[in-house]
Design brief:
Helix content: over 70%
Number of strands: 0
Number of helices: 11
Structural class: mainly alpha
Largest sheet: none
């Protein structure tokens, strides 16, 4: 603007000053628009940062609340907090571990685990890896594959593998499941002798339900 006024005052060339005024205004409009866009982007980024910070605070509190509820033996509420904490990638592995632990101890039902497996495919793969050295988790996954749950398509072959793995690690209830699968031909051929052997071993180890399987097999064999 000072350049424009100086040119007008010194030369009196109104035409040139008017032309310069148009140039200045068009340039000013462009700069104003550009600055407005940059300010808008800065505001959006600041809002995203604030949202992220708030989300982190929420997930942090969710995990902490879950731990507290677990200590208070309010396992359902604990599972809900841990499930919410899984939305944060950083908190997800630990929150998932808590949900797994609560599930294998039969303190909560499969619902939370099912929803997590649906939402995060990588968690199911992680659970399979852990099951190699964790008999409880191996039984859990074998059960999920044996029954027709929403998250995992029924797969008797996979169920057998997980139950076998758990049996080798001393889980007698897994042996009971193997007896059922041999008796009814689920994922394997029907083999009453194998089923009876599994039922007997499971019953001797304290699985009361196996007694019914022993009676059924003996009846089928005419004993």
């Amino acid at each position: 603007m000072l350049e424009l006024m100086q040119l007008y005052n010194e030369t009196g060339e109104k035409g040139k000053s008017a032309e310069l005024m148009d140039t200045y205004m068009s340039r000013g409009d462009y700069l104003w628009i550009q600055q407005a866009e940059e300010a808008k982007i800065r505001r959006q980024k600041r809002q995203m940062d604030e949202d992220l910070i708030e989300k982190m605070k929420m997930t942090d509190r969710s995990f902490e609340n879950g731990v507290q509820c677990e200590r208070d033996k309010d396992y359902k509420s604990a599972a809900e907090f841990f499930f919410k904490a899984c939305d944060d990638e950083t908190a997800r592995p630990l929150a998932f571990s808590h949900i797994l632990d609560l599930t294998v101890k039969d303190l909560i039902d499969f619902a939370y685990l099912e929803k997590l497996f649906v939402k995060y495919d990588e968690l199911l793969e992680e659970a399979k890896i852990r099951a190699r050295s964790d008999a409880d988790l191996s039984v859990l996954l074998g059960t999920l594959y044996y029954f027709d749950f929403e998250i995992i398509e029924k797969d008797f072959y996979r169920a057998i593998l997980f139950f076998l793995n758990a049996t080798l690690k001393g889980r007698t209830d897994a042996q009971y499941y193997l007896g059922i699968m041999s008796e009814f031909g689920h994922g394997t051929k029907i083999d009453y002798d194998e089923a009876l052997e599994c039922y007997k071993m499971a019953y001797e180890s304290g699985v009361e339900e196996a007694l019914n399987g022993i009676k059924r097999i003996k009846m089928l064999k005419g004993e």
